[in-house]
Design a protein that fits this description.
Strand 4 and strand 5 form a beta hairpin. Strands 1-2-3-5-4 form a five-stranded antiparallel β-sheet, with helices on one face. The chain contains three helices and five strands; from the N terminus they run E-H-H-E-E-H-E-E. The protein has about 130 residues and is an alpha+beta fold.
């Protein structure tokens, strides 16, 4: 792969449960268009978890960014909550209704993390994960 194969897309998502399906559909189109169909299943699950967390834990819109570099595919979601994400391992208990999202990200992504945006907790945060390299 050369640097001509690097690309990036951003999609602004309103605060609605429909945003998760829109994000997944857009991601599928991006990956197919760039010949990365083998990443669709894993990347789609990761994006579903990140966008769902943004919708559940933040009061406003979010933004999905999908970036391909020579070595990796980075999926990131910005949201309006300044609260850092945390893995709730208790949610991994059979029968629990939620709390599995970041545990799934931890298991499927090669790397993941987050950082605050702005000077205070009101600026939001960006949660990202990477596949590859």
């Amino acid at each position: 792969m050369n640097h001509e194969d690097d690309w990036e897309y951003s999609i602004n998502l309103p605060h609605t449960p429909l945003a998760v399906g829109v994000a997944r559909g857009a991601l599928r189109l991006m990956l197919r268009a760039h010949g990365l169909g083998e990443l669709i299943v894993t990347a789609e699950l990761l994006v579903s978890e990140l966008v769902t967390n943004a919708h559940v834990h933040a009061p406003g819109p979010s933004c999905l960014r999908v970036k391909r570099s020579e070595k990796w595919l980075r999926l990131s979601v910005w949201d309006t909550s300044g609260e850092p994400p945390r893995i709730r391992w208790a949610g991994m208990v059979a029968g629990a209704e939620g709390g599995r999202g970041l545990g799934i990200v931890e298991e499927l992504a090669d790397r993941w993390g987050h950082y605050s945006v702005g000077l205070s907790r009101t600026g939001g945060k960006l949660v990202w994960c990477e596949l590859g390299g």
